[in-house]
Amino acid sequence: RGNYGHGFDTAFLEIPEIDIVAVADADETGRQAAQIRTGARRIYANYRTMLAQEKSNLVAIGPRFVGERVAMVTAAAAAGAHIFLEKPMAATLAEADTMLDACAHAGVKMAVGHQGRLHPATLHTMHLVEQGAIGRLRQIRGYGKMDHRGGGQDLMVLGTHVLDLMRLFGGNAHWASAELLVGSTLATPADVRAGTEEIGPVAGDGLRATYGFENGVLGFFESFAGLGGGEDLFGLDLVGETGQLSLRGGFFKRLLRYPHPYVIPGAADDRWEVVPVPDAAPGEVLDGTPPDRSDAPRQRGNQRLVRDLLAAIAEDRAPLGSGERARAALELIQAVAAAHAAGGRIDIPLVERGHPYAGMVDK
């Protein structure tokens, strides 16, 4: 439709192993523009025609809209193409299940655009946690951007990044409890509305969720509309027995460290220390993208995922940003509405694979 999510059509330009042969877009203006951006040799109005004629090894599925996700992924898998998929992965767990089943049946691999998982700041934070910089991990606190999309929309569109990282640090979640709010009151079935970008129904302009991860680690996620945090608030805090680490900002521009497990106002050492973050991950060779270009962090984030996908294909292993991990993050998203509808704590994995907001309407 002429709207590619976050540089998915240009992610391959600096990867010499990849030859961009074609672009498909039903929108003529978008199709022409994508060909200019990517240098693709051929363009198509229909992606099925492209898949049938090009016999590509790798397909990027970049629309921000999720309404055609299942059709596009299953068609690409049936054509024998490995897949690089924009987030959010799907509107429901049932759709995610269908896509992963199709990939498994076809023997192809899929990576999803959770760029934060391979970001140098994330990897450095993981190293610090593993080295005991904050003692045993006790809590993970995640935050959406809390702009005008705060609440259910923020959870689905941007919370997927944060919840993916919460799983990276906390492992699998076994239970969840949550509340969806409209102002200061609990959301009701009358508050369910259609989300933008075909993400399915959403509710509320605020939410708070609690997750039980492995080894007794508790996770918290919250998002409220209009708090004005935006890029600076987006991210997560890791709380250990002896200190805290805060990974914040779009593409995690800031990593800070606090010397206590709780904030102690007025203490002699009551201050957050900035932790230097490397520009590249260990062993990573930076591409030719100018570092001052506005889209450089996103471009490199996509390229890390694509390079890992290529390595996963060669080594016959799961990509680090695998579809299975993206589905697990989606499950934490869906657990918010499911727990709210249930009125209490629920177990994970979820038995109901359809959209949990239907449970609110049924009640």
In words, what does this structure look like?
Strands 6, 7, 8, 11, 12, 13, 14, 15, 16 and 17 form a 10-stranded mixed beta sheet that branches. Strands 3-4-5 form a 3-stranded parallel beta sheet, sandwiched between helices. Helix 1 links the parallel strand 1 and strand 2. It has 2 domains: 111 residues, Rossmann fold (3-Layer(aba) Sandwich); 170 residues, Dihydrodipicolinate Reductase, domain 2, CATH 3.30.360.10. The protein contains 11 helices and 17 strands. It has 363 residues and is of the alpha+beta class. The mean pLDDT is 91.
CATH H level, superfamily name of the largest domain: Dihydrodipicolinate Reductase, domain 2
Succession of helices and strands? EHEHEHEHEHEHHEEEEEEHEEEEHHEH
In total, the number of domains comes to 2
CATH fold naming of the largest domain: Dihydrodipicolinate Reductase, domain 2
- Principal-axis shape equals globular
CATH architecture of the largest domain: 2-Layer Sandwich
SS field, number of helical segments: 11
What is the percentage of strand-forming residues?
15-25%
C-alpha end-to-end distance: 36 Å
Unreliable residue stretches: none
- Mind telling me the C-alpha Rg? 21 Å
Task: Please give a handful of descriptors for the protein shown.
363 residues, alpha+beta, Rossmann fold, 10-stranded mixed sheet
In short:
With 363 residues, the chain is of the alpha+beta class.
Spell out the blueprint of helices and strands:
Elements: E1 22-24, H1 28-38, E2 42-44, H2 47-54, E3 58-61, H3 69-78, E4 82-85, H4 93-106, E5 110-112, H5 120-130, E6 137-143, H6 152-157, H7 159-170, E7 173-182, E8 185-186, E9 192-194, E10 201-203, E11 206-213, E12 218-224, H8 230-233, E13 235-240, E14 244-248, E15 254-258, E16 273-274, H9 296-315, H10 323-342, E17 346-347, H11 357-362
Parallel strand pairs: 1-2, 3-4, 4-5, 6-12
Antiparallel strand pairs: 6-13, 7-8, 7-11, 7-17, 9-10, 11-12, 13-14, 14-15, 15-16
Helix pairs in contact: 3-4, 4-10, 7-10
